[in-house]
Amino acid sequence: MSEQDKIEVRPIKLKDIDDILSVDGEIRAVGNVITYRNLTTEYILFAGHGKPPQRSPASYMRSLTGDVAPLLNFSFVAEVNGQVCGFILGQVARLREGVTEIGIIQMIGVHPDYQRKGIGSKLIRALADKYRSEGIKVIRIGVDHRDKSLLGLVEHVGFGVDRLVVYSMIV
Ligand SMILES: CC(C)(COP(=O)(O)OP(=O)(O)OC[C@H]1O[C@@H](n2cnc3c(N)ncnc32)[C@H](O)[C@@H]1OP(=O)(O)O)[C@@H](O)C(=O)NCCC(=O)NCCS
């Protein structure tokens, strides 16, 4: 990627789904996914929307069922010269603690060949602007403390550690 290459961040469209799953695959092929190791983009996209195709799908898009609007309302892709190379999937959550609605970052990914070019930051800022325009004032992301790239990114764009600590137990 050169200085002249143009990064464009825009709202996701249904037709981008195959591209973002392909970017997801490239990221996972590098093998250092930490925070999202057990949470795949495929799972987020298809939860409640049918079954992902089993083998070398020609198109994931055609396999999605039901109302996918809530899935797409708070999600963006980044393109470099018209090629999708990053994405962010957001969702609004309603919680009882203090604030009623918060904006969640469910997943973010930038193709390994395009990392450290400011794309992840642009994706988060686009989502933050969208949440702000909808009156949502707090954004939350869960990050595995060993995930240096995601930690570096969220701290870079201005996130701080919340007072809420998440405990988990395998049952
Ligand atoms: C985390 C991730 C989204 C960052 O995207 P990015 O486009 O490279 O981020 P940016 O270029 O906007 O980085 C902004 C800042 O974040 C910090 N940062 C980003 N990557 C970092 C890393 N690997 N180590 C430390 N800090 C990092 C830096 O402060 C950076 O600024 P700098 O490049 O001027 O030093 C990207 O590394 C990624 O996709 N990782 C895999 C995430 C994943 O597992 N997704 C699920 C599978 S799809």
Helices and strands, with pairings:
Elements: E1 7-11, H1 17-30, H2 41-46, H3 69-72, E2 75-80, E3 83-94, E4 101-110, H4 119-133, E5 139-140, H5 148-157
Parallel strand pairs: 4-5
Antiparallel strand pairs: 1-2, 2-3, 3-4
Helix pairs in contact: 4-5
Coenzyme A binds next to helix 1, strand 4, helix 4 and helix 5.
What are the defining features of this structure?
171 residues, alpha+beta, Aminopeptidase, five-stranded mixed beta sheet, 20% strand, binds coenzyme A
Describe the model.
The chain has 171 residues and is of the alpha+beta class. It has a single domain, classed as Aminopeptidase (3-Layer(aba) Sandwich). The protein has 5 helices and 5 strands, in the order βαααβββαβα. It has helices at 17-30, 41-46, 69-72, 119-133, 148-157; strands at 7-11, 75-80, 83-94, 101-110, 139-140. It has a 5-stranded mixed sheet with strand order 1-2-3-4-5, with helices on both faces. β3 and β4 form a beta hairpin. α4 (119-133) crosses α5. The radius of gyration is 16 Å and the shape is globular. Bound molecules: coenzyme A (COA). Residues 24, 27-28, 33, 36, 41, 107-110, 115-121, 148-150, 152-153, 156 line the site of coenzyme A.
